[in-house]
Amino acid sequence: MERKSNVWQGTLALMVLKTLETIGPLHGYGIARRIEQTSGNVLSLNYGTLYPALLKLEQEGYIASEWGLSDNNRKAKFYRLTRAGRKQAQQETRDWELAIAVLARFLAPESQP
Amino acid sequence: MRSLRAWFVRMRGSFRKQRLERDLSEEIEANLQLHIDDNLRAGMTPEESRRQALLKLGGVEQTKEAYRDRAGIPWLNTLIRDLRYGIRMLRKNPGFAAAAILTLALGIGANTAVFSIVDAVLLRSLPYPDAGRMVVIHEELNRARPLNVSWRGTAAGSAPGHVAVAAWHRDWIGNRVGRGAPASQLAFRDQAARHRYIRRRHSAAPRRGIRRLLHSRSPRHEG
Q1: Taking CB atoms and an 8 Å limit, are A55 and B71 in contact across chains?
Q2: Residues B100-146: pLDDT tens digits?
Q3: Distance (Å, rounded) from C-alpha A3 to C-alpha B116?
């Protein structure tokens, strides 16, 4: 059985923002599937955890939602990125890139002088 | 800024729970349906499709619970619920409600009355010009309790530096002295001091007040 990781604390919001930034408006199920696919199925997501996360982002004004129809004509609530959300995604991306770069130096130290 | 905005939205959310709840139920159901469709397309039986979708969701009730905590402000929800419960109970027991309200009314009333007296007697300044400079004069003899000074002696100048001297007795409280002592009740050191007192008393618009009325004025301020 392959090993699956849970979504790390604090990263779900950024994954949602980035997903919406890449694909455009999407419903909750689509976002969840997309996050799993993008992670190469390494991440395992309880779809239920997505709802509070989406709600929080909406309360903060980073995303907006409205009801619409899915590809196969099902009713669904679609989320899209707001302008503030776009900025937030960029900001958080920069922060994470920095964090990852710093951490990488600890994980693979180059030859000691 | 963002979190402030979120707080406002959540505060509002606490008051329109039913709408949010309905919206969430519909959203969960819609997403489940999408998931089930996918599972059917992948070749599962209808029952298995639904079971897998629910499993992946991690429980409808848990999801709703987590959502509720974020949609409103939990302590505000509790407060609203408690208030509603309290009002309902009061309405159910009118007798108890009346007793409780009456007790509160009496308590508040008594408190106000007592404070009015304390305010008039202790807090407000006395209705005389330069009320802050008033003193009570008495004599002491060794360790004996304070003795009243001789009225005539004081008026004749045994309390030097005082502009006006008045007699005071606790039986007078509230009647003779209550509205500011008229100048005729006071003994002045000289005619100029008397006029000064009258002038100031008229300009100072006396208010309600009780007690002590020795009006003091030390010589160094006499200019």
Answers
A1: yes
A2: 999 999 999 999 999 999 888 777 776 666 777 777 766 666 666 66
A3: 77
